[in-house]
Amino acid sequence: MARVSQEHLDARRRQILDGAALCFARNGFHATSMQDVLKEVDLSAGAVYRYFGGKEELIAAIVTEVLDTVRGIYEQAARETPPPTPDVLIPRTLARMREARPATLDNGEWMFPRLMIQVWTETTRSPEMAATLSEGYQNVRAGWARIVEGYKDAGMMPRDADADAMARAMIAVVQGFAAQIALFGGTFEESVGDGLRALMAVRPPGQDA
Amino acid sequence: MARVSQEHLDARRRQILDGAALCFARNGFHATSMQDVLKEVDLSAGAVYRYFGGKEELIAAIVTEVLDTVRGIYEQAARETPPPTPDVLIPRTLARMREARPATLDNGEWMFPRLMIQVWTETTRSPEMAATLSEGYQNVRAGWARIVEGYKDAGMMPRDADADAMARAMIAVVQGFAAQIALFGGTFEESVGDGLRALMAVRPPGQDA
DNA sequence: TTGTCAAGAAGGAACGTTCGTTTTAGGTTT
DNA sequence: AAACCTAAAACGAACGTTCCTTCTTGACAA
């Protein structure tokens, strides 16, 4: 009967997760030591190990949070009516990621894309994480294929276009730009739209106007 | 004067690099131990340490090889005349990566994309690697922007389109599909073309035909 | 309101292990 | 005989984790 409030426990857990995420975004999961995390969150080992069974559990918690965030944003995008064109949808998706997870590194760079690529590498190591990611990806792909069907219904593109392939391509653009932001920094969500508009404006020679 | 032939030395070095690449693609740089590498290449510690000063040097060699390979392929694509449309250029770029580095994991999955995402995470840790990557990226972006200018010259797209933004977008597609192949496997270079063709066929409502 | 106290929360030294690397001695190839 | 390589042991450093101690909290009795 000397417990501290649930809010306190939740806040501590969040504090640990946030500090760990910062460390992991900086150095990756396996090049950051527990002592790095302990120093970052300014807690003792005893405290952290009360909230997480170990490093693996901490990593799993971060991976899950990242995957849930990304999946949620993709699905939110798929629910928009009417579906925005890709040059609007894709930068908006990136912008929503920044809104949802705006935290930055010490150098001011956006943390979340770095975390994303770290999660990608980690999922290739863990069958359970890989399964979670695959499941989410399947759903997102189906959702974004429905967007493409919406384009067709609106007469914006031919009915015989491959909706699933196009969904994959749009997701690839999001992933690719996330990687570029992680690697090169900057806030170029806007130029993403310009690039996509340009890409959509390409007309193979000897085809209509 | 009982040296072994230079070919032998080169072959040993390559054997070590290939084995290390396999380990790194499996588990990432920092979750694979030197002993993992030693076992994979079936050499003693003394032998490996004769060719590489240590783990860091081994990692740096792998990173450099991956970056050089990718950069070479991007630049080869930029030299094609006449420049193929994106729906041809991009899957061809991925196909050339597979030709250049066809090695597979134990499960038959293509190794190189996994190595690519590992390299991405590693470059965020090392300023020198980050500088190398940034420099290569700048050049590739400029090269691919020249492709876009070629499209304009051929009357395939409006002159006022943002060539640099479009170059970024095309590179993002390559990167995104590399990530998808690394994460989900499969050989869907072909559907990449379908997806891009569909994307390029989108016409915003209330705009031309 | 105040004092007491058990239990929860946090601290921090220390544990055993594993890491990357070096060293040793001996064997094999050229 | 010189270079190459093996096998094994050993190194200090760093790792993840545990364990015991200390501090803090909140219920309850006075």
TrEMBL record, chains A, B:
<dbReference type="GO" id="GO:0000976">
    <property type="term" value="F:transcription cis-regulatory region binding"/>
</dbReference>
<dbReference type="InterPro" id="IPR039538">
    <property type="entry name" value="BetI_C"/>
</dbReference>
<keyword id="KW-0678">Repressor</keyword>
<keyword id="KW-0238">DNA-binding</keyword>
<dbReference type="InterPro" id="IPR036271">
    <property type="entry name" value="Tet_transcr_reg_TetR-rel_C_sf"/>
</dbReference>
<dbReference type="InterPro" id="IPR001647">
    <property type="entry name" value="HTH_TetR"/>
</dbReference>
<feature type="DNA-binding region" description="H-T-H motif">
    <location>
        <begin position="33"/>
        <end position="52"/>
    </location>
</feature>
<feature type="domain" description="HTH tetR-type">
    <location>
        <begin position="10"/>
        <end position="70"/>
    </location>
</feature>
<dbReference type="InterPro" id="IPR009057">
    <property type="entry name" value="Homeodomain-like_sf"/>
</dbReference>
<keyword id="KW-0804">Transcription</keyword>
<dbReference type="InterPro" id="IPR023772">
    <property type="entry name" value="DNA-bd_HTH_TetR-type_CS"/>
</dbReference>
<dbReference type="Pfam" id="PF00440">
    <property type="entry name" value="TetR_N"/>
</dbReference>
<dbReference type="InterPro" id="IPR050109">
    <property type="entry name" value="HTH-type_TetR-like_transc_reg"/>
</dbReference>
<dbReference type="GO" id="GO:0003700">
    <property type="term" value="F:DNA-binding transcription factor activity"/>
</dbReference>
<keyword id="KW-0805">Transcription regulation</keyword>
<dbReference type="Pfam" id="PF13977">
    <property type="entry name" value="TetR_C_6"/>
</dbReference>
<protein>
    <submittedName>
        <fullName>AcrR family transcriptional regulator</fullName>
    </submittedName>
</protein>
